[in-house]
Amino acid sequence: MTAFLYPQETVSRRVVDISGLWKFKVDTDSEGRSEGWKDGLTNTTDMAVPSSYNDIYTDKALRDHCGDVWYQTEFLAPKEWQDLDVLVRFGSATHRAIVWVNGEEVASHEGGYMPFAGKLNDVVKFGQKNTLVVVVNNELSETTIPCGNVKQYDDGVREVKPWFDFFNYSGLHRPVKLLALPKQRITDMTVLTDFEGSQGKVDFTIEADIPAGALLSVKLYDADGKQVSQGEGTKGELQVDNVNLWQPGKGYLYTLEATIEKEGEILDQYPLEVGIRTVKVEGTKFLINNEPFYFKGFGKHEDSDHRGRGYDPVVNLRDMELLNWIGANSIRTSHYPYAEEFMQLADRKGLVVINETPAVGQINLLPFGGDMGGAFAMLGSGGSNQVQNFFELDQVKSKGMENHKDAVRELIQRDKNHACVVMWSISNEPDTTHEAAGEYFGEVFDYARSQDPQNRPMTFVNVLVAPHGKCKAAQHADVICLNRYYGWYMMGGYEMRNAGKAFAAELSSWSTEGKPIVITEYGADTMAGVHKLPSVQWSEEYQIEYLDQQHEAFDGCEALVGEQMWNFADFQTWEGIMRVDGNKKGAFTRNRQPKMSAHYLKSRWEKIADFN
Ligand code: GCB
C-alpha cells in the first residue's frame, strides 16, 4: 500500500524506527525465492539500514551484484498496539522489493525512490518478536523507471547496465519504521496557498475515515506555535492575517493541525507544515510570490562515501550549509526523488526545489547492449537517427509509459504539499528528437498536470542532441530546461574560448519560444588539487575559465531565469574510461570540501539577487 503521510508521532500515533544493523544475504544463484528465504535467512552477514549495500564490503561481486539481495530483522509489536492498525513503512527500496512478516507477504513495491507500507495486523504476534524479511532487486530494463538493461557474460555472471551516469546504488536507502495508527484516521491532507497583500490563504482538503459522531477540525499555528486560524470539516479555507510568506532563503512555515475528536477525546491528530507562497510562469518570467525569481544552484545527487545513496542526516545538513555558504537558492533533485527528510529540510531552509521523477535514460541503448560509451559516440556523430527512437519502441509506449505515469503520480502525491517544490521535472534527457517523443510527452505532461493540486509549472530536461527546432517535447513544457556542455563534451580544450558564443547562439534560438529558460546542467570534470597554468581540461583553472564562458552566455540572455551547475559535488558512477572514480564535475569534492570553482561561484552568486 502507499503511505504518503510522513510518519509523525502525535497523541494518537506511534512511530518506531527499526533501522539499524540487519541480517543480509546476497542471492548469488537466484535461489531465495524458490528456496523459501522469506521464512528466515541462514548464513547471513550484517548490513546497515539505511544505506546502499554496495560500498561497505570489499567484495566486488557484492558491489556489482545484479539481482536479489535479502534483508532480515526482528521487531517487537507491543501489546498496547492490538487495537490499532500496525504498519511497516519503508522510505524506499531501490528499485523494487517484497516484504514478508512471519513468512506472510505484507507489501511489495516497484520504483526505487518512493515510500510504501504494509499492514501487519493479520500476521503480527503482539507482545512477541516478529521476523521481517525483505528481498530487494536492482535489475533495470528499457521499460523500468529509470532505464537500463542486464548483460549476461559467458561465465554466467550478470551485470546491470544503467542508462545513466550515476552508480546504480541499491538496497534499503531510507529509514524503515513501524507505525501504530488509529484504525479510523486521517489518511491524506492537501493544501493550496495564496495571498493578497498581507492576507494569506490556506485551502485544505483532508481525507479521513471519521467515526460516527466525531468531528474533524483544523487549526493553523504560526512558527511560534500561536494559533492564527481555525476551521472545521474535510474541506475549507483559512485566512491568515499579516501573513509571513514562505520565501527563498526564508522558509517560514505554519503548521496545519488536523484533529478528529469525539466527546472531548482526540481520536487522531496529524500536523502538516505549510509554507504560504505562490508559483507561476508569466511570459519568460518564473514568479515566486509574484516576483521574478532567478535560480542559482546545482543539480545534486544523494551520494556519499560508504553510504552510497543511503540517507544520512549529517550529509544532508552539511549540504544545506554549503548551499547557503555558496549563495545558492535552489537545487534540482536530479535524477530521482530525494528522501522525505531532505524535502522537509528544504522547506525549513527556504531552498527552492525542482523536483524530478526517476525517469532518466529514456534513450534507446538496446542496440548498444547498454554501453554508454557506444551511445555517446553515436550521439556525438549526430546519429540518433541510426537506431529506432526510444519512444517508438512498442514496450515503451505501453509498459514504459505506465511505469512513468506511476512514478509521476507517486512523486506528486508524496511531495504535493512541500512549499519548496516550485516545479516538477518529469524526465531527464530523454531522446526527444522524433515525433513519437512528442506524442509520448504530450500524454505524460497531461497526466502530470492532472495530478498536481497546486498546478505548478511542469518541465523536463532537454538533452543537447535535441536542440531548438529538433526537440519534439519542449512544446509541452512550461519552462525550457537545458543541459549543455559547451566547452566540455563539445568545443573542449583550446576551442573552449568560443564556447560562450556558441552557447549564446543556441540560447537566442530557444528564446524565441517565449518561455523562461533554466540551465539545469553545465559543467566540466575537475580533479580537486590539479592546478595548471595555462589551464588544461580537468584542472581547477579550466573549470573556472569554463564557467566564465557559460556565464557570459547566460548574462546576455533575457529569457534565462536560472543557472544550476552540474554538479554540487563529485559523485560515484559506473566504472569506465569516461570517469575517473566517478564524475568529477562537482563544485565540492565528494567529501564536501570546496574546489576553486566553489569560491568563484560564491562570489558570482552573492552578487545576483534572488529576485530581479
Ligand atoms: C548529463 C546528465 C548527468 C551526467 C552529466 C555528465 O547530461 O544529465 O546525469 O552526469 O551529463 O557529467 O555527463
Mean pLDDT: 96
The chain-level structural class is alpha/beta
Instruction: Give the biggest sheet.
Output: 8 strands, parallel, barrel
Number of domains: 3
Family: Belongs to the glycosyl hydrolase 2 family.
Protein name: Beta-glucuronidase
Organism: Endozoicomonas lisbonensis
Domain Glycoside hydrolase family 2 catalytic: 279-609
What does this structure look like?
The model has no long low-confidence stretch (mean pLDDT 96). The protein is built from nine helices and 30 strands. The strands form seven sheets. The chain has an eight-stranded parallel barrel with strand order 23-24-25-26-27-28-29-30, surrounded by four helices. It folds into three domains: 14-181, Sandwich (Jelly Rolls), CATH 2.60.120; 186-277, Immunoglobulins (Immunoglobulin-like), CATH 2.60.40; 303-605, Glycosidases (TIM Barrel). The chain has 612 residues and is of the alpha/beta class. Helix 6 (435-451) links the parallel strand 26 and strand 27. Helix 5 (394-415) runs parallel beside helix 6 (435-451). The chain is 19% helix and 30% strand. The protein binds (2S,3S,4S,5R)-3,4,5-trihydroxy-6-oxo-oxane-2-carboxylic acid. (2S,3S,4S,5R)-3,4,5-trihydroxy-6-oxo-oxane-2-carboxylic acid binds at residues 164-165, 335, 428-429, 483, 521, 566, 583, 585. Residues 185-277 form the Glycoside hydrolase family 2 immunoglobulin-like beta-sandwich domain.
Question: TL;DR?
Answer:
By secondary structure, the protein is an alpha/beta fold.
